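[job 0412] stage=fold_complex status=start
inputs:
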Amino acid sequence: MIDKQIATIEAAVADIRDGATVMLSGFGEAGHPTDLIHALLDQGARELTIIANNAGNGYVGVAALINAGRVRRIVCSFPKSSQSVVFNEFYARGAIELELVPQGTLAERIRAAGAGVPAFYTPTSAGTPLADGKEVRDFGGRPHVLEHALRADVALVKAETADRWGNLTYRKAARNFGPIMCMAADLSIVQVRRHVGLGDIDPEIVVTPGIFVGRTVTVAEPADEQALIASGYRREPT
Amino acid sequence: MIDKQIATIEAAVADIRDGATVMLSGFGEAGHPTDLIHALLDQGARELTIIANNAGNGYVGVAALINAGRVRRIVCSFPKSSQSVVFNEFYARGAIELELVPQGTLAERIRAAGAGVPAFYTPTSAGTPLADGKEVRDFGGRPHVLEHALRADVALVKAETADRWGNLTYRKAARNFGPIMCMAADLSIVQVRRHVGLGDIDPEIVVTPGIFVGRTVTVAEPADEQALIASGYRREPT
Amino acid sequence: MTDNATGQGHNSVRRTPDEIAARIAQDIPDGFYVNLGIGQPEKVANHVPSEREVVLHSENGILGFGPTPADADIDHDLINAGKKPVTLKDGGSFFHHADSFAMIRGGHIDLCVLGAYQVAENGDLANWSTGKTDDVPGVGGAMDLAAGAKRIFVMMTHTTKDGAPKLVDRLTYPATARGVVKRVYTDLAVLDVVDGGFQLVEAVEGLSLEDLRARTGATIHTP
Amino acid sequence: MTDNATGQGHNSVRRTPDEIAARIAQDIPDGFYVNLGIGQPEKVANHVPSEREVVLHSENGILGFGPTPADADIDHDLINAGKKPVTLKDGGSFFHHADSFAMIRGGHIDLCVLGAYQVAENGDLANWSTGKTDDVPGVGGAMDLAAGAKRIFVMMTHTTKDGAPKLVDRLTYPATARGVVKRVYTDLAVLDVVDGGFQLVEAVEGLSLEDLRARTGATIHTP
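[job 0412] stage=fold_complex status=done
writing structure:
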């Protein structure tokens, strides 16, 4: 019998290894798997490569992971924010490597990995410094840049509901990177607000079919990252 | 005010031009926009290039269009079936041009056109006659074939419900090519069983956002293509 | 069905398509995502042990489809890749064609069982065209499945109706994909594709290795 | 706001950001799909005439978002690309990031209004980086929007705080995309990008062409 639900969040992330490439869903705080990230922080894996849209705010979520020295390299589109204190500091002293990728190229590279497309051409970034060193080719008289699929060992994703087959629905704009990261990682680990019975999710409204999901874990009341940041909370490894 | 609903199916297809490239949704009969195709047949556009998974059965739908001599060229994955009498006959006497494309490559090329990706690499067809004359390149030690985006002037699509913004839902496996063809055509024309009020489609379950839809038309009781074929019905231009 | 498999006086038990399907089903673990090719491979679904939950994928955009419905329940919008009516199990889902082939090409389908005209000892597969130029060609999802699924099993007769071997040293039919077949299940034997040829897993009762080799156009290694 | 726009004794009426936004809104037809860049361009939403239905796209995965909610109705899962709370209009929808950027890169967004550091007379746009190597770089969706939307309008001040022209013959800042800007709306003028330079559409009242040219680092053609 298929049952992807894991009893505890600690068990869900227990086997993530040092040196792993880990995708984190979320755009800003919406859809950011803060609870899974904190579990990974406690689990202790080091030398991680993180793929995420942002580099975190305050001292929680991915910022806490960076602050604990666990992240060697980050691939993202917009690391900077008014509260990205940790990333800014690590970056300034060369303690973290950054691969800056336009947001749409990031999304398409992730989707490509999930879809078995090793590389594709995009007009985005042609003629800009972000295309430096990349293959450029004209299609329809316009330059396009060759971009490669971006895969991961693990994706940590936040969704709304799951059934035991791993079918997922999301909530509003928190959907963002979740569906494509589930496709692009060898193992996707998904925190959901609730599990429902098999057949309780209308087959027409499944956003991520279970085939893309490795593990699910219930986090009924996910951390409110914005509130934590506003309160000045610093998440340290336990 | 945005209102994509067109009063009659004749008006919906009135301006499709001779020489147009027209995508037709559907896998077999499921999701095949038979009523729109018959309206196009009556409208009279000639020298069409058709992009569709199949080449039709009996003498209805796309088969009727071919039989009336309206189709110069067809791009599809599986023209042959036990009832593809019209296509077989036209093909045998060289009266229709065929570009045979693997089904997944067809889907991905269509999606690529909609997503602004002019070309991508795929492992599908590498080392086979369908890769003859195409650029082949190794990624990860494995040969991949360069495939180009496939766009259209018009997509004729069958869906289930629409609102006046053109948001669509589909029904079961009739979804198939509909969403990606809506993305890949300059103008998508969609027959739906029913229109609903704006806001009546839950924003979480919209499958094709209205941005990809040009026109919608109600066909409350769409032609039952299987029954028509079984009855031996021959659809001729009126 | 008992048959004279060799045509040379030896009595061996040739497997029926249902028996081959049942044999394949034994090798499918609980929880696998499986695509069954159109035709004979579809029979595999009927033989999956009831205690195993196997999720069937259909390339037209379904995960988790179930058996043929009663006539009264046939829904023309709920068909499989073979265009035959199916049902949907609890936990099933629908998605569009690009997503469906993303599952295939992206390596998310654990296993695909396909029919074949020929399988070569290097794992090359031919199952889409006989190469006759006057035929109407059709490829469907065969090349995507062959190139994309994690494992390809082939289900076929060991020889053609005319007795010609379908396991060959080199394809003579147009390729569907290169080096992809992992295991072949025929009416006479089960063979793995290994470096340098086919490796015999099992032959049907009463069939000697010599007889099997006589009906095979490629090297057969034994364990 | 009335201001001394030229610093040379001429009285001209410099447009406020809201006035620029209102001017841009005049040029947005009914039924357009529009993406408004983070910052000042967001103001455009407040000025779309009520009889026009314009569908706002946010690259994090929303079509049809509406105004800022009341504090009590703020939902952290319903934010725009600027990470500010929004609402959803009837007819709105949610989708994932790859689909959202397919809308952008695929040319489905009729119009994108972006801020800029510089616009060159050939339509090149610089709005993501000042080129200072010690800054933390960030690009977000700027390059995708600039390369992908059907039309790019730029909303910016005509000059920097130090009075340096932002309309230039050639970018000195790193490019976001090449040859994409169609029209520029500043506090002093509206200009189209045409072959061989900027074409003046209108200048604010009281501003002479000479004054405008003095504040512009590129050719300005007049009709």
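[job 0412] summary: Chain C has a mean pLDDT of 94.
[job 0412] exit 0
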